[in-house]
Structures are given as structure tokens and as C-alpha cells.
Amino acid sequence: MIMEKVQCGTFALYSLLCRHAKLSLLPNQQAADEELPAYKFGPSTGTGASSRFRRFLEKHKSHRTALLVLVLFGAAIVIGDGVLTPAISVMSSMSGLQATEKKLTDGELLVIASVVLVGLFALQHCGTHRVAFMFAPIVIIWLISILFIGLYNIIHWNPKIIHAISPLYIIKFFRVTGQDGWISLGGVLLSVTGTEAMFANLGHFTSLSIRLAFAVVVYPCLVVQYMGQAAFLSKNLGSIPNSFYGSIPDTVFWPVFVIATLAAIVGSQAVITATFSIIKQCHALGCFPRIKVVHTSKHIYGQIYIPEINWILMILTLAIAIGFRDTTLIGNAYGLACIIVMFVTTFFMALVIVVVWEKSIFLAALFLGTVWIIEGVYLSAALMKVPQGGWVPLVLAFILMIAMYVWHYGTRRKYSFDLHNKVSLKWLLGLGPSLGIVRVPGIGLVYSELATGVPAIFSHFVTNLPAFHKVVVFVCVKSVPVPHVSPEERYLIGRVCPKPYRMYRCVVRYGYNDIQREDGDFENQLVQSIAEFIQMEASDLQQSSLASSESQSYDGRMAVLSSQKSLSNSILTAVSEESDFAEPTIQSSSKSMTLQSLRSVYEDEYPQGQVRRRRVRFRLTPSSGGGMESSVREELMDLIRAKEAGVAYIMGHSYVKSRKSSSWLKKMTIDVGYSFLRKNCRGPAVALNVPHISLIEVGMIYYV
């Protein structure tokens, strides 16, 4: 199986399990989601021990909660790597300045490393697409450099070191050193922790190409370099604290120092970008507070920047660097974090063997036991370093895990409240097509997390205001546990009430690796999709079997519709117009001082010609009007006129509070933890890229 491109293996495996078993605690799955091509991997027989084990996990909520906590812990550890890796990489590369004749003090070295780290994080908003072409040459030059330095040291200091490649020497090593040798495995772990990062690119390259690169290039270069350092130390035992830079010949010291610094920056940049990606995935699966994702490149997919996370990472990284001032202590923390991630990932891989691949439990247990024995030896050695810096990833992971679980728990409680307080369809039908209020021109997009039913904010709105838009669309933007959803399968369109009500539902589906681009074309795509649904429904209802079922359910039948159709096949023709966004609507002859001042402020903020917007008008395709029923034409014309009148976004401004009868733990979780996270994260309008000028917020109090 070629795993989807993710930076955090635990979340990839967890989402894979959620697609094959009902393990998700957020009940927003739909049957249509399972029809996505990426949803299932291989046939599901549903028989034998695999099926019984799957039912065992699904039956008990405590088991599903335990899996969620474990995956959150693994993800939190990986995010912690985003703090530790830049600190240890930059400080290790800068340590070469202490091997020169003008040896710098620890304080001077720390200042230089801090400046480099601040610069690294300060430039994140620019993206990496401008300099990304240099990353591969830097890494290749770095690998070639350490290869030749290793060969030089082997030949110059101790050619017999080549015999160390025999596994007999590790047996002799443990026989002589005993417990000290076992504890040293925590340091040996650092020699392999960076190599597994190559497999985070399994979406950009094939698994075969990565295996070849590792086996043919990376592994030989690393082994030769480590053997060269061992040969150097065999004759220079006093150089152990700075063995790498001490083993570099003086003639090539500065070029190697420069390339080592650049390689450290490249590695740190890769981990920071990976941390952004992991946090975005956590947010997509409802396990992280709302964030603003900025796309740093219009042409390269997946390059993102999260402002608040960037500055938090910078502060924590500087705190680690300044607080420890020792790469050995930071290395202890980094090694423990990596082995914990491996340990957790192995456990989820064993679950995948049973639940997804439907192999025997014995085979999964054999795999788990074999790998855990090896990883357990390293984990036990790394745990001995907890007092010497190893506590840092554990503390960071614990805080992050608590925050993510509190957010997920509050989101579940809020969703459950919405689910149990949906507006009755019978109540809507009793109001009639006018809903008992004035229906004004325009389209009202009512945002909700509900994939079915009418949210409570709609009834709260119409009972307090005497008017609403002529066309109503209930929009649900949700993430499904697949890496990507193609644009052709993104929109699910359905009808909520009979045709005269002009009420529709749109479920917008994204994968956890998908990007919601700020292209401003969502409204046009939505109108086209609804028009295609109206046409498709009309053709289907001509069949007597479907016509008889029209009155049975108005909120169940939904269709996957694509907005990517060519104009020749679409029922609507889009006419694109470009107009100055800043074109003043105030007449120049106006003598009102207030209006003139408003106009001057508007022109200062939006200079003429600086900002332009794309305005799209729709009209019926001439070829489609011949055999169209009058009711269908009237509904389409109402949709077109509503689009021209304008689109408003209605969202709930919610306050979540615990009930008075709740336990003290729940009150602390909801009233303190969840409330704090909601107040200090991005609003839903920002996270969903809703234009502020068209936003209407409806206040709601949720007692959960």
C-alpha cells in the first residue's frame, strides 16, 4: 500500500481506520462519502476475525476515545519536533565556530544561533517557492561533502575501522559496556531519527524512488561519515565534544561550515512546513482550533503558512535554545520524541493490518511484537534521558494533547446540540413557501456543521427578523477522512423543502490535505451546481417511480454535482465581467460633507485600478430552453435573479456553556478550556474565507 502524502503517519493511519470502521467520534459521516474513490482501499469481505475485531472497536466508545487520545498524543509529539528540530539543527551547525582559532564563547554562539532562528521564522510568510530550487542541490552537496570527509578520515586516521561494519562488534560492545552501552542507545538513536523523514514525501515521489535514494545515496554517505568520525576519534579522544567539525581538514573547513549551515536551515524549513501541514490536518479532522491558512504559492500545491503557529513555534524554539544552551540536552529531547512517534505509529500499523488489510490477528500481533521489541530497547534507553532534557517533548505533547482533545470534545458537544435541536421540517412546511415573512431578492447562505436537517440558527433568525432571502442554501463545509477530494466530487446538492420554498442544501467536502483556496469563485460554482441539480431532478422526476417518491422526503436525496463542466454542457452560461472594485458609488455632485469624506476614505483605501474583481452574470443556455418545463425555467430564473441581487453569508456566533447539572470536570472543560480556545482562535468566517462585507452573524447560546 502506498500511503497518502502526510507528514504525520499516525493521523494518516487513523483516518484510514476511520474509513474502514466507525471509529470517528464526530457523527457527520454520510453514505455518499463512502462512494469516493479514495475512501476504501481494496474489497471489504467483513468476515472472520477481522470483522469481529472491528465490531469490538466500534461497540465501545471508550475504545474509540482511547484511540483518539493516542493519535492526538502522537500528533502532539510530531508538532513538538517542529520546536526541537530548528533549535538542535541551527545550534549544531553554529557549533563549528567553536572549532576555529578564534573560538567563540557559548554566549556569542547562542546570540548568532538566535538571530538565525528569528530570521528563519520571520521569512516563513514569503514561502519557499522562490528558493526551493536550491534545496535539493544543497542537500546533495552536503551528502557528497560528508561522504568524502568520511573517506578522508578513514584513510588518514585508521583504515582498519572498516571492520566495524561487522555486527560482531556491537555484540562485543554490549558485552564490555553492559548497562552503559544500553543507555548509549539513546544517543545512537539520533543517527537514524532524521532518515525516516524521507518517507514523509510519499505523495511527491514514489516509494521505489525514495527507497533507492535512501539505499544508494543517503545510507552509504551516513555510514561512511560515521565510520570516518570513529576513525578520527580513535586517534583523537580529546575531540569527542565536537568530533564532526574537529575531523574536517582545515583547507575545506569554511566551505563545509557554510554548506552545513545551509543544510541545517533546509532541514529546519522542511520541519516547520511539515508542522504547518500537520496542524492543518488536525484542524481538518476537528482536533485543532480554527486557524488562518495562507497559501504562499499560486502555482505549487501544498505550500502553506499559518501566522499564529509560526510565531508560537519561534518563541518556543528560542526558549529551548536559550534555556538549554546545550545540543546534548536538546538531542535527548529530540531522540525521545522520535522514538515515541515510531512506537505509536507501529501500533496503528498493526491495527491497519487487521482492520484494513483484513489479515489475521496473529500476523498483526507477530508484527507488533517483533517491531516493538526493537523499538522498546531504544525507547527504554531514551526514557533514561528524561531528567536530562527528555522531559521537554513529554510536557509539550501533554499540553498540546489536552488542548486538542478539549477542542475536539467541545466540537462534539456543540455538534450534538445542533443535531438534537434541528428545526422540524413539519414546522417549515406549516409556514408555507413565504415562511411567514417577507422573502427579499438575493441568496442567503446559511452555514452550519450539520450535513442533514435545518440548523437552529435559521429558526432563530426568521423568528426575530421579518425578512429573509428568496433563495436559501444551507451550506455545510466538512472534511472527510481521505487525503483529497477531486473538484468533480466536492459538491453534494439536495433540496430541503418543496420547490416553491426555494431552499437547498450544499455539502462541500474536502480531504484533510485539500486546500480551500481564496479564489472568490465559490458563489459561482455553487449557483452552477444548484442549476445542474434542478435540471437533473426535473429529468429524473419524469419517471413515474421517482415522481411518486417526491413527497416522501425533501431532505434525504442528494446528488454529487460538478461545477467543472464545460460551458457547452452546462444549463447556465457564465458571462464574466471585470470592474473596478473601488469604483465609487457616490455621485461627484453630492454636496454632503459626510458622503464626500466617506468617498475620500474609500478612494484612499482602494485606489482606482489597484483592485479589480471578477463579476459573473448567468443566463440560460439558449439550447436548453426548448424542451424545458415552465416550472423548471421559473426556478432557474429565480436562482439567476437572486444571484444578481447579491449573496449574504449567515453564520452562527455561538457561546458554548455547560449545563448547571454538569460535573465539575465538564464545567472546567467547556466553560474554561473550550471557551478560552474559542475566544483566542480565528473566527469561523476567517477560517472559511467568508467575505466580511457580506457576513451576517446570528448569536446563539449552546448549553451542552
Automatic annotation (TrEMBL):
<comment type="function">
    <text>Potassium transporter.</text>
</comment>
<dbReference type="Pfam" id="PF02705">
    <property type="entry name" value="K_trans"/>
</dbReference>
<feature type="transmembrane region" description="Helical">
    <location>
        <begin position="212"/>
        <end position="232"/>
    </location>
</feature>
<feature type="transmembrane region" description="Helical">
    <location>
        <begin position="363"/>
        <end position="384"/>
    </location>
</feature>
<keyword id="KW-1133">Transmembrane helix</keyword>
<keyword id="KW-0633">Potassium transport</keyword>
<feature type="transmembrane region" description="Helical">
    <location>
        <begin position="109"/>
        <end position="126"/>
    </location>
</feature>
<feature type="transmembrane region" description="Helical">
    <location>
        <begin position="182"/>
        <end position="200"/>
    </location>
</feature>
<protein>
    <recommendedName>
        <fullName>Potassium transporter</fullName>
    </recommendedName>
</protein>
<comment type="similarity">
    <text>Belongs to the HAK/KUP transporter (TC 2.A.72.3) family.</text>
</comment>
<dbReference type="Pfam" id="PF22776">
    <property type="entry name" value="K_trans_C"/>
</dbReference>
<feature type="domain" description="K+ potassium transporter integral membrane">
    <location>
        <begin position="7"/>
        <end position="428"/>
    </location>
</feature>
<keyword id="KW-0813">Transport</keyword>
<dbReference type="InterPro" id="IPR053952">
    <property type="entry name" value="K_trans_C"/>
</dbReference>
<keyword id="KW-0812">Transmembrane</keyword>
<feature type="transmembrane region" description="Helical">
    <location>
        <begin position="390"/>
        <end position="407"/>
    </location>
</feature>
<feature type="transmembrane region" description="Helical">
    <location>
        <begin position="334"/>
        <end position="356"/>
    </location>
</feature>
<feature type="transmembrane region" description="Helical">
    <location>
        <begin position="133"/>
        <end position="155"/>
    </location>
</feature>
<keyword id="KW-0406">Ion transport</keyword>
<keyword id="KW-0630">Potassium</keyword>
<feature type="domain" description="K+ potassium transporter C-terminal">
    <location>
        <begin position="441"/>
        <end position="702"/>
    </location>
</feature>
<feature type="transmembrane region" description="Helical">
    <location>
        <begin position="427"/>
        <end position="447"/>
    </location>
</feature>
<feature type="transmembrane region" description="Helical">
    <location>
        <begin position="65"/>
        <end position="89"/>
    </location>
</feature>
<keyword id="KW-0472">Membrane</keyword>
<feature type="transmembrane region" description="Helical">
    <location>
        <begin position="300"/>
        <end position="322"/>
    </location>
</feature>
<feature type="transmembrane region" description="Helical">
    <location>
        <begin position="252"/>
        <end position="279"/>
    </location>
</feature>
<dbReference type="InterPro" id="IPR003855">
    <property type="entry name" value="K+_transporter"/>
</dbReference>
<dbReference type="InterPro" id="IPR053951">
    <property type="entry name" value="K_trans_N"/>
</dbReference>
